[in-house]
Design brief:
single chain, mainly beta, 4-stranded antiparallel β-sheet
Length: 160
Amino acid sequence: IATQSGRIDSMPRLPDGSPDLFAASDPRFVWNRRLVSQLTRQPGVGSRWFLPIMQGHVQVERCRHRLPSAAGWEVKVALLLISRRGSGRAGTRYNARGLDDNGDVGNLIETEQMAHVSLAKLREDAGPRPEGCPQGWLSLVQIRGSAPLFWEQSPQGPIQ
């Protein structure tokens, strides 16, 4: 949780001031939401005792490339891939397809690809800072799932 960016200040809080992770999480991707909601109905049990469980993947790769046109400088790129799987209609190919009555698709996956580009000085006697090299964050979010249609298929028969 980043404290300098202000994200923690905008998070829902429990009465003791700690962040309420369940209220802040996207319900489409929390796998233990139903279980926790049943347990928190008991007197004296609050959501502070539980963490939202998500299924997904996180990967970070770092790349460096020296700039031949600017001696003593290099471009550093950090590539991040974050994917999370929806908990609503997950399943095998034949059991979770199409769209349900709530508009949820089967096998929902959200993937965010991020890249952080920066310039780094390799040595103190490096030349002037190169012009025209973009710096900062780039981001792309993709959401995919089964075809958003009402349909079903049994393993033995044709599509209905």
